[in-house]
Amino acid sequence: MKKLIKNAQAIVTCDEKDTVYRDADILIDGQEIIEIGKNLSPDGADEVIDAKNKFVYPGLVNTHHHFFQTFVRNTVKVDYPNMTVPQWLDHIYPVFKLINQDVIYYSSLTAMADLLKHGCTTAFDHQYCYTTNSGKETVDRQMEAAELLGIRYTAGRGTNTLPRSEGSTMPEEMLETTDEFIKDCQRIIETYHDPKKFSKRQIVVAPCQPMNCYKDTFVESIKLARSENVHLHTHLGEGENEVIQQRWGIRSLDWCEKIDFVGEDVWIAHGWELQDDELDRLAGYKTGISHCPAPAVLGGFPILNFNKLLDKGVLVSLGCDGSATNDSSNLLDSLRMAYLMQAFYSKERGGCVQPYELLKMATINGAKTLGRTDIGSLEKGKAADLFMIDTSNLEFTGMWHDPANLLARGGVTGPTWMTMVGGDVVSKEGHLVGIDEEKLAYEGEKVCTNVLRNHCDAF
C-alpha cells in the first residue's frame, strides 16, 4: 500500500547531511520511504495525508526502560530521591516480587501507549523482573502487547542470579539460575528474534547488572549472544562500583573488560559514574551509553558531560528508564529534560550541546545502538517511522524558523499530531488508532490494584 504525506511544512531527516526539507512530501510504499521531495505526484497512492502546517520528525528510539515498573508510579513511599541505588532497590523489590504476567502485559501496554503518543516508534525494554508469580513467559506477553499497539519492539531479556546472602539486593522470589536464564534466552531468540530489514521483533541478552548476578551469568550471556548474533545490555556506572571493588578488587568496567562484555554489540545504561579514561575505552570499543535524564535528576546523581562524550566519540542514545524512577514513558519529555540538564552546566563545559544534537541521540544514535540501519532517520530506503507536530497551534508561534532545534529547545513534550510506524498510523491527535483505551485502562487499573496495591504497604 502506497501513502503520500503531502505539503509538510518541514521534514527534519536526521540524515548524515542534517537535511531539512521545506514544503515537501514523503512517498511511502508499505513500510519503506521511497522518495522525499517537492511536488511528488499522488498518482498511484492509496492514501494521501495532508501535512499542511506540520513538522515531521524521525520516530524516536528508546534505548532503556523497565515497563514492569509502570504500575509503581506516583508511589511516594518508595520515592527515589535521597537514596543510593542499592538502598532504593532494597525498598522497591518487595513490590516487584509480587508481579505476575498480567501486570507485565498491562504495564507494558501502558508504557508503550505513552511512548507512541509522544513520538517513540522503536522501544527497547530491559525486562529483568522474573518472579515466582510471573513464570518465564513475560517477554511473550510484551510481544503480545507490542503487536496490539503496533510499536517496533526490542526485548531485553534480563535476569538476577545472585542471592542476598552473597551480597545482592535481590529477594529470593526474583532470582533465577544462570541455566534457567540462558535456556529462556535461547527460547525467545528462536521464537521472536527477527534480524531482517524492518523487523518489529528483536531480542537482546541483558543480565541486569554485575552487582546482582554471578560472573558466569555474564560469561554465558556473552557466549549465547555472540553465537546468535544478538546484542548485549546491562546497567553499569550507576553507583555499583563500590560493591564491585569490594567483591572483585576492580571497577565495574574493568570487570566487564576481563570477560569481554564490551564491543560494538554492547551498550550500557546510565554510566554517570564512569571516569575519563573509562569513557575513552568505551569509545574505543564502540560500546554505547543510554542516557536516562530522569533518574539522574531524581536521584541527584552526576550529569553526563555530552560535550566530553561527543569529543571522545562515545555513542550516546536516550532512554526513559523505568517508571519507578521517572513516572513517565514520554521520550519527548526526556529529550527536553536532557537538554535543560546540559544547559545548566554549559558555561563550565564550553557551551551547551545544541538541541538538534539531542534529537539525533534520540533517533539515529538510538538506531545505531540497537544495531539497526533501517530506522532512525527519514531517507529513501528506511522505514516510514515518524511523527508530526501541528505548528498551527498558537503556542508554536515564533518558532517556525528552526524546526531542527524546536523540540528540546521549545519544550514540545505533549502528544504528537500523528505517529506512524512502518507506514501505519498508530496514534492520531493524542489517541491510539483502533484501540479501546478506556477498556484497557480499566483492566490495567484492576490488575494493578488486585496484584500489587492490595498486597503491599508501599501504596
UniProtKB/TrEMBL annotation:
Residues 55-426 form the Amidohydrolase-related domain. The keyword Nucleus does not apply. CDD domains: ATZ_TRZ_like. InterPro entries: Amidohydro-rel, Metal-dep_hydrolase_composite, Metal_Hydrolase, MTA/SAH_deaminase. Transmembrane segments: none annotated. Signal peptide: none annotated. GO terms for molecular function: hydrolase activity, acting on carbon-nitrogen (but not peptide) bonds. This is Amidohydrolase. The lineage of its organism: Bacteria, Bacillati, Bacillota, Clostridia, Lachnospirales.
